[in-house]
Amino acid sequence: MANLSIFKLKSRNLWQFLIFIILGLFLFLGISLLPLQKVEAKDISAEIIATNNWEYASFPVETFRSYSSPFGYRKSPTGGNTTEFHKGLDIVGPLGSYIRNWWTGQVVELTDNTAGGTTIKIQSGEWIHMYSHLMGKVVISGNSRYLSDPEGGIELWLGEQVESGARIARIGMTGRTTGPHLHWGLKYAGKYVDPGLVLQEMYKGQNA
Ligand SMILES: [Zn+2]
Predict the structure, then answer these.
(1) Cβ proximity of 135 and 175 under 8 Å
(2) Residue 110 alpha carbon to ligand 1 centre in Å
(3) Domain span at 94
């Protein structure tokens, strides 16, 4: 009897030990996979960028001042010591100056109730290009909606087809922002791409 109870104790300890090992492995895998997500975004950028033809692409702002924040991890501009992934490129221009459509496509989303403020999403094949902190607001009309910025002469409808280089909005300060700039985001096949790399390729292609 005494021998049996010792055996039970040992087997229970063994199980606890195994469970700890398994939990530990999951934790280790979870932590070591986190940085892989960062790398993935960059690798995909380089691969796609090299295989595109940039002839018809337009620089997204009419009056360029500077770049204020690149794509990638950064210290949060609003909160203490926290870091965040900045999913686009911030381009500074004068308040109220025009934004130009990067690539011919269709307006697939218009919103004005997130941290991005008034935002346009345009789809061009596998690409989605996003423009945030714009002037104006979204107006619901029947079953549809449009971006309304009357002072800028802008009325952009959901579902509308827009040409590359067309004026689609103006630089504003809507949403979470500390100064007038365009937050420009790009996605290819559902994955974020570094807009800075895209701009570099556009210049190479257009000056060739
Ligand atoms: Zn931004």
Answers:
(1) no
(2) 17
(3) 66-207
